[in-house]
Amino acid sequence: MGFASKFAFWFSWWAVIVATGLEFPSRLSGWEVLTFRALGLLLMTYGLLLNALAGRTLKEYGHFDIRRGIRKPERLVTVGVYSCMRHPAQFGSIFFGWGLALLTASVPALLLAGWYSFSALYFILAVEERETLREFGDEYCRFLKDRPPFSFSPGCIIEGIRALRSKAR
């Protein structure tokens, strides 16, 4: 599956969540809405950070030559944020979607975010894993055994930053 299709999936997911939140506004008020929105901003920031670290790490370590644009990596990346989990960008995209849903503080948007999260996790584990295994073979098979698909550890962010800093030197 190409990058454009994957981008369309994530973008449409986020757009539907926002549209649902606007169509079915929250009935909460005061500190409750502020709490939801603060948590939403926190999750969106974490999701964007994971996405940015994953993308930059792929660009720096996944290609034999650095060119402009987004393309599939030519080699398996096992450093930085990828030393903690196999799918940091997608995991970050899920966090971003939950953050959007929390920003709306809308129950239907939150339910939709849950449904989309499960469908995204299925897609990642059923489709992405198969594609990556086909691309990298035995090397990815060993990588599968060593790392979980996702990790909540804040240490992953630190590893991601550390790897990019060492590459910059």
UniProtKB/TrEMBL annotation:
Keywords: Membrane, Transmembrane, Transmembrane helix
Cellular-component GO terms for this entry: endomembrane system
Pfam families per the UniProt record, alphabetical: PEMT
Transmembrane segments: 7-24, 36-55
Matches recorded under InterPro entries: Phopholipid_MeTrfase
Source species, domain of life: Archaea
Topological relation to the membrane, as annotated: Multi-pass membrane protein
Protein name: Protein-S-isoprenylcysteine methyltransferase
Lineage: Archaea, Methanobacteriati, Methanobacteriota, Thermococci, Thermococcales
